[in-house]
Amino acid sequence: MGDLRLTGVTKKFGAFTAVHNLDLVVPEGSFFALLGPSGCGKTTTLRMVGGLEEPTSGTVELGGQDITRLKPYQRPVNTVFQSYALFPHLNVRDNVAFGLRRRGRSKVDAEVTAMLDLVELGDLGRRKPGQLSGGQQQRVALARALINQPEVLLLDEPLGALDLKLRRTMQIELKRIQTEVGLTFMHVTHDQEEAMIMADTVAVMNGGRIEQLGPPEELYDFPATTFVANFLGQSNLVEGSIVGTDAEQVVVVDVQGAKVAAPRDRARVTEGDVWVGVRPEKVHMVPAMAADPALNRLPGGVVSDASYTGVSTQYLVRAPWGQELSVFEQNHTSQGRFSPGDPVDLTWALEHTFLLDAAQDARAG
Ligand code: ATP
Fold first, then answer.
1. Residue 26 Cα to chain centre, angstroms
2. pTM for the whole thing?
3. C-alpha distances in angstroms, 166 versus 159, 309, 311, 320, 333?
4. Could you please report the per-residue DSSP string of 343-363?
5. Do domains 4-226 and 235-364 have the same CATH topology?
6. Residue-wise pLDDT tens digits, 241-285
7. What distance in angstroms lies between residue 46's CA and the mean position of ligand 1's atoms?
8. 287 C-alpha to ligand 1 centroid (Å)
9. Where are the chain's structural domains?
10. Which of 34, 94, 193, 282 qualifies as a cystine partner to 42, CB 3.0-4.6 A?
11. Half-sphere exposure (CA, 13 Å, Cβ side) for 143?
C-alpha cells in the first residue's frame, strides 16, 4: 500500500490533448474526488490509473512502484462503473464471488457474506441483478470490486444513474464504507455537492488541467480561480482595484467608489485589478442609507427579483453599474423581507471576501 502519484501525466488523442501535464498525489487511505464539467479529462485520468488508457507521457506510481505500463489486471486497482457491468445471469453472491473464483479460490462463502453485510445487502444474495433496484445493483458492483482487496478503488460516476434522493443516501453510504475499509477511493463526478459531501480532497479540473486541489472547505471559502469560484457553488464576482494594505493586514479595494476589504491571507494578489468575490449566503441586504462610508458596504442596489425557496429567499440585486448580484437570506420569522424595487445596500463581514487576480483568466487563455 502507499500513495498514488501521477507525475507529468499527459494524454493526447491525435492532435487533441485531453489531459495536460498532470501532477497529483492521492494519499493512501483518502477519499479523493476529481470534479469538473463534461469533457474536462476526469475519466481519461481515472482510466490511466486503472490501466485502461496509456499516458502519452508521464508516470503513474503506487506506493513508489511505477505502474504506468502495467495491464489493468496486473495492478492492485479496481473500477466501479456507472453502468455497474454486473453479470445478468449470475445471482448477487456469484457476481460478488466472481473475482475470487477467477483467481482459483473455491471457499469464498464467508468473504462473500461479509462483503454483502458491508454493503447492507445481506438477504438479497440469491437474486439476479434484474430483480434489484438501481441502488442495490450499485452496492453489488461495489462489493464485487472490494472483495478483490484492491489498494485503490476507482469510481467513475458510480451514482450517475440514480435519482437525486438515492444519490444522497448512497453518498453517505460510500463514505461510511470507505472509512470502514480504509482503502484509497478515487471518485469522478461532475456534481460539486457530491464531491464536497464525500471527499477529503477535491481536485477541480478544467480543460485537462487541475485548477485547484484541496479540502472542500478550502476550495469553497478560498477559491483560487474564477472557474473554481463559479463551479463550486455560486459566487458574486465584481471588478475592483486594490488601493492598499493597512496595518491590520487588510487589503482594501475600490469597487465603483465604495471601499471593500479582505484579510491579507484571503487575497491571492496585493496590487492591481482584482475580482472581488463573496458567496451569496454571506451577503446581507440592509435598507439603503445615503453616503455611508462603512467598509464592505456597497450602496445603491435595487432588488430585481425575490425567489422564495422555503429555507431561504434568493434575491437578485441590481448594482448601480448594472451587474446583478445574488443574496441568499435564511428565512427567519423575525426578519423582514425585501421586495422587487426596494432600494438596498449590500454588506458582509470582511473575512468572507476573497480576491482573485483579474489578469489570471487572460493569462490562462
Ligand atoms: P464526462 O463527464 O462527460 O465523462 P470527462 O471529464 O470524464 O467528461 P473525458 O472522458 O476524460 O472527459 O474526455 C476528455 C476529452 O477527451 C473529451 O473532449 C473527449 O471527447 C476526449 N476523448 C476521450 N476519449 C477519447 C478517445 N478515445 N478518442 C478521442 N478523444 C477522446
1. 15
2. 0.89
3. 9, 22, 22, 44, 32
4. EEEEE--GGG-EEEETTHHHH
5. no
6. 999 887 777 888 899 989 999 988 888 888 889 999 999 999 999
7. 11
8. 49
9. 4-226, 235-364
10. 34
11. 28
Domain 4-226, CATH number (from 3.40.50.300, 3.40.190.10, 3.60.140.10, 3.40.1180.10): 3.40.50.300
For 132-146, write each residue's pLDDT tens digit.
988 889 899 999 999
Helices (H) and strands (E) in the chain, counts: 9, 20
Ligand 1 atom at minimum distance from 16 CA: 30
Q: What topology is assigned to 235-364 in CATH?
A: OB fold (Dihydrolipoamide Acetyltransferase, E2P) (2.40.50)
Q: How many residues does the chain have?
A: 365
Residue 79: strand pairing partners: 154
138 within 8 A of 84, measured Cβ to Cβ: yes
Pocket test for ligand 1, best of 9, 13, 52, 154 (most atoms within 8 A of CB): 13
Cβ of 335: how many Cβ atoms within 10 Å? Answer: 10
Q: Which atom of ligand 1 is nearest to the CA of 188?
A: 7
Atom of ligand 1 nearest to the CA of 36: 6
Q: Which three cell numbers stand for residue 167?
A: 444519490
Backbone φ/ψ region at 79: left (φ over 0), alpha (ψ -120 to 50), beta = beta
Helix axis angle for 109-118 and 134-146, nearest 10°, is: 130
Q: Which residues pair with 65 in a beta bridge?
A: 62
Residue 338 alpha carbon to ligand 1 centre in Å: 46
* 169-to-35, 164, 172, 275 alpha-carbon distances in Å: 20, 9, 5, 37
Whether complex ipTM tops 0.90: yes
Mutate to test the pocket of ligand 1, among 6, 34, 40, 52 (most ligand atoms within 8 A of CB): 40
- CA–centroid distance, 206 to ligand 1, in Å, is 12
